[in-house]
Design a protein that fits this description.
By secondary structure, the protein is α+β, with helices and mostly antiparallel strands. The protein is 32% helix and 33% strand. The structure holds coenzyme A. Coenzyme A binds next to helix 3, strand 5, helix 5, strand 6 and helix 6.
Length: 192
């Protein structure tokens, strides 16, 4: 089932096939970047425990998680709309292409355009935000391409491979979003 159809990737339900990839994904280089430099080895048992704790939490996190699947059916990562507040109409975005072979090929931007459009047009959010560490060049470039504004820089927050990194917070307001079709044309994004 396709929930949101892109040019290079489709966003689909994040089901068991994705969960089966988590042990490999959460222990590879993608997690280093997504977790701002942590290199924690996660056992299957620990992951199961975390899943149970999340399911049993009194106040589960609000949000939506999509699985990212290429057009040839390869599962490559997940994109989330997190900490969603219906009252403030604000949400955080999470972006993870967990298969490094797919980095830098436009897949993440294709997926992000889908998620942003969905969050503004269907969930009626007015503000989206995302944070990353200052050495994450792919995210910095992607944020610039998609039109997010760097809003805050928290100094020396994340220790990544022995180097202190700042945390950069990016925001995008609904009235700054020209819509997915315009962004696709602007970026020259094409199906392969
Ligand atoms: C961040 C992420 C989702 C971006 O998706 P992606 O598919 O790699 O991104 P895209 O290819 O669409 O765009 C990345 C841009 O960064 C550029 N880029 C790639 N590697 C780069 C590098 N080392 N230095 C600078 N720019 C780089 C790409 O060339 C591209 O720009 P361009 O279109 O002008 O050429 C993906 O790389 C990822 O999941 N990384 C690991 C986890 C992570 O960092 N998550 C984000 C946490 S906030």
């Amino acid at each position: 089932m396709i929930l949101l159809e892109g040019l290079l990737v489709d966003l689909v339900p994040y089901g068991r096939a994705f969960q089966a990839r988590e042990h490999a994904w959460y222990n590879n280089e993608s997690m280093f970047w997504a977790s701002m430099g942590e290199r924690e080895l996660l056992t299957r048992a620990r992951m199961e425990q975390q899943r149970r704790e999340e399911a049993e939490a009194d106040q589960p996190e609000t949000g939506v998680t999509f699985g990212a699947r290429t057009k040839d059916g390869t599962l490559i990562g997940l994109f989330g709309i997190n900490f969603l507040s219906c009252y403030h109409r604000v949400a955080n975005l999470g972006a993870m292409i967990n298969e490094p072979a797919y980095w830098g090929g436009g897949y993440g931007t294709d997926a992000l355009l889908l998620v942003v459009d969905y969050a503004f047009d269907w969930l009626d959010m007015r503000r989206l935000w995302l944070d990353t560490m200052s050495s994450n060049a792919r995210v910095l470039r992607q944020m610039q391409k998609v039109g997010f504004t760097p809003e805050a820089r928290l100094r020396s927050v994340a220790l990544a491979d022995g180097q202190w990194n700042d945390e950069v917070v990016f925001g995008l307001m609904r009235d700054e979003w020209p819509g997915r079709d315009t962004m696709i044309a602007r970026l020259g994004l094409r199906a392969r």
